[in-house]
């Protein structure tokens, strides 16, 4: 999987396909109203409705279910370039929830003695 850096919004390229939290796929395109994600049903969401981490701003009319959870690269098939599906595209990024670990979990993971471990703030 390719790396998407801190501001994931800056990593998007025209023609990429994304998956929203609600399971719907959309293509990133440039239109007369600006950069948007367009679904197969013709629903579009402006890029300006997103924060750098690809979640929606809370002060917009766009529901949180339109937060982006996956980004897929370009189609490998010339005839399928405009297909809004992930099937012939490489998964470039996927949102993962951070794991909550105890200090003991960390010590066990790195196989060190708890007496040799000191946590920084």
- Residue share in β-strands: 25-35%
- Structural shape: elongated
The order of strands across the largest sheet is 4-3-2-1-5-6
- What is the H/E order? EEEEEEH
Number of strands: 6
Given the helix and strand composition, which structural class is it?
mainly beta
Estimated radius of gyration: 19 Å
- Major pleated sheet: 6 strands, antiparallel
| Poorly predicted spans | none
Number of helices: 1
Estimate the mean pLDDT confidence.
Answer: 86
Kindly, what is the distance between the CA atoms of the first and last residues, rounded to a whole number of angstroms?
31 Å
Number of domains: 1
Q: Helical residue percent?
A: under 10%
Give structural notes.
- The chain is mainly beta and 121 residues long.
- The chain has one domain.
- Helix content is 7%, strand content 28%.
- It is built from 1 helix and 6 strands.
- Strands 4-3-2-1-5-6 form a 6-stranded antiparallel sheet, with no helix packed on it.
- The longest helix has 8 residues, at 103-110.
- The mean pLDDT is 86.
